Predict the structure of Inhibitor I9 domain-containing protein.
Amino acid sequence: MSSKQRELYFVFLNFDPEYERLRSDRSKRGAYELDMYLSKKHDELLARTLEPGSYNKTLSLVIVDGFAVEITLDQAKTLRSAMEVRVVEKNQELA
């Protein structure tokens, strides 16, 4: 398999006190602020780490501080080395 082929990966980030604070606010406004915070945080990480236009973030995960992104194997290795990244895992389809 070519390392240039994009596949879906899940990226989970290290502990973030701001995420925990926002997650504890169960109001509608709190949920909105958490969504906006995570989306911006994840977009900024990708923009800092990878070449623009070379990836496709498909979603931000609110229940955990993470996101799904279509990237190459080489890009996954690059993301793994980012300080704020805890885990990068390729999506595994179950038979």
